[in-house]
Amino acid sequence: MTDISSFIPSDVTNAADGAAKTAAEKTKRAKEAALDAVKAARETATEVAQQTRTFATEKARAGAAWTSEKAKVAHHVAEDHPMGVALGAFAIGLGLGFLISRNAR
Length: 105
Fold this sequence. Notes:
The protein has helices spanning 9-80, 82-103. By secondary structure, it is an all-alpha fold.
């Protein structure tokens, strides 16, 4: 049989206080860890957004330069060989039309 005298109310109170302190400490550590995780996520998101902005700006500039260069070259070719450009465009259109009509079946 269990000796009832071994369970003194002061032991139960001390155990409850110890459990409450342990729970409070664990809750405090969990809150700190969650705040650290949120802070790290914010920093990462900010850094990624900045890198994306920089990358998009650089690619837009490169694309604009490439497009203007290619447009100038195409304009000069069209001026120099208007009949060749017209026949090339007709041939490309004819080939694409054939492929499209073939896939439509």
